[in-house]
């Protein structure tokens, strides 16, 4: 049975934001075809994951509640916004059933498992794996990465491409291949090719504020490998708001937005993940990142990265204009 609440006033909406830890809001209109198409799924999620005082599902008619829609920058329908403790936590623009389900299941898992202070293994819920806990007040915004626009230089073409870095599944290297010494056939990671350097261009579909990077690297040890294993990244340079991937020589002449040096102690022994806190003030209105792996943590020839997660928050919303219907692809 659905537990969705129809919002009648802004005061009612604000009340739920204060009284419920999470509020899942469906911004819709009666004339919107994609809104009607995805509504049965939304009602199903509401029936399954509503938790009194913890997870509340609401529907906001944008025609009748324009003040709420304006405040949160709703310019396309449907739009789903999840609020955590009165702040925007995650959003989904368009009738994207998979993304909506993943967002809701992730929230429900956090509530059911006691919040972000517990075992990091709980993050592997609903095909959304995280290598480390989320900093309080921030969310995983990796879904805002424009996968089609990714560009990766000096990668071993036999292994996974740039898209592998942003897969939602748990890295295959954590599921037994490393301990047995047998290489996974999935190849869901990236290694550098001719030398230890990698250059990755990451565009975003919307402006984001980047607080933290989670970099997962799971190279096999020397004793487990018949060939020289790759290294973990050591020196990384970040460049924000570039229009394209940088060349390696070009990057040497451009001051990075931030330079990072990773030490052995930075890598979590269980998940192989380093949590990199950025100088948040320098990454407030980010439309793209270039990640330049300058060198690795040894003297071998290749560097390996298994996953990359972007942690932060969505950027400033646009002012409310003419609403448009958004189909299954969210574009």
Automatic annotation (TrEMBL):
<keyword id="KW-1015">Disulfide bond</keyword>
<dbReference type="Pfam" id="PF00085">
    <property type="entry name" value="Thioredoxin"/>
</dbReference>
<dbReference type="GO" id="GO:0005737">
    <property type="term" value="C:cytoplasm"/>
</dbReference>
<dbReference type="InterPro" id="IPR013766">
    <property type="entry name" value="Thioredoxin_domain"/>
</dbReference>
<dbReference type="InterPro" id="IPR037047">
    <property type="entry name" value="PITH_dom_sf"/>
</dbReference>
<dbReference type="InterPro" id="IPR036249">
    <property type="entry name" value="Thioredoxin-like_sf"/>
</dbReference>
<dbReference type="InterPro" id="IPR017937">
    <property type="entry name" value="Thioredoxin_CS"/>
</dbReference>
<dbReference type="Pfam" id="PF06201">
    <property type="entry name" value="PITH"/>
</dbReference>
<feature type="domain" description="Thioredoxin">
    <location>
        <begin position="1"/>
        <end position="109"/>
    </location>
</feature>
<dbReference type="InterPro" id="IPR008979">
    <property type="entry name" value="Galactose-bd-like_sf"/>
</dbReference>
<dbReference type="InterPro" id="IPR010400">
    <property type="entry name" value="PITH_dom"/>
</dbReference>
<feature type="region of interest" description="Disordered">
    <location>
        <begin position="169"/>
        <end position="189"/>
    </location>
</feature>
<protein>
    <recommendedName>
        <fullName>Thioredoxin</fullName>
    </recommendedName>
</protein>
<feature type="domain" description="PITH">
    <location>
        <begin position="130"/>
        <end position="330"/>
    </location>
</feature>
<comment type="similarity">
    <text>Belongs to the thioredoxin family.</text>
</comment>
């Amino acid at each position: 049975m659905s537990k969705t609440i129809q919002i009648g006033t802004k005061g009612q909406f604000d009340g739920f934001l204060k009284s419920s830890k999470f509020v899942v809001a469906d911004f819709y209109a009666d004339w919107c075809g994609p809104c009607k198409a995805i509504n049965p799924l939304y009602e199903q999620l509401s029936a399954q994951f509503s938790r009194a005082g913890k997870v509340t599902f609401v529907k906001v008619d944008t025609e009748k509640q324009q003040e709420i829609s304006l405040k949160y920058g709703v310019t396309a329908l449907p739009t789903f916004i999840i609020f955590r403790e009165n702040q925007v936590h995650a959003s989904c623009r368009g009738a994207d059933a998979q993304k909506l389900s993943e967002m809701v299941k992730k929230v429900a898992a956090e509530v059911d498992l006691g919040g972000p202070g517990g075992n990091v293994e709980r993050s592997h819920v609903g095909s959304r794996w995280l290598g480390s806990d989320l900093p309080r007040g921030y969310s995983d915004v990796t879904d805002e990465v424009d996968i089609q626009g990714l560009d990766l230089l000096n990668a071993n073409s036999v292994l996974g491409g740039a898209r592998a870095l942003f897969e939602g599944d748990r890295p295959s290297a954590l599921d037994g291949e490393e301990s047995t010494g047998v290489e996974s056939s999935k190849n869901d990671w990236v290694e550098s090719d001719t030398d230890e350097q990698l250059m990755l261009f990451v565009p975003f579909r919307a402006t984001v504020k980047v607080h933290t990077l989670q970099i997962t690297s799971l190279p096999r040890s020397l004793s487990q490998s018949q060939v020289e294993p790759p290294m973990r990244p050591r020196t990384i340079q970040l460049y924000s708001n570039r229009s394209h991937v940088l060349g390696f020589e070009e990057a040497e002449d451009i001051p990075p937005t931030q330079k990072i040096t990773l030490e052995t102690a930075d890598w979590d022994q269980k998940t192989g993940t380093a949590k990199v806190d950025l100088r948040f003030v320098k990454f407030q209105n980010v439309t793209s990142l270039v990640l330049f792996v300058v060198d690795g943590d040894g003297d071998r020839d290749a560097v390996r990265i298994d996953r990359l997660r972007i942690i932060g928050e969505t950027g400033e919303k646009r002012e409310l204009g003419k609403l448009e219907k958004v189909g299954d692809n969210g574009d």
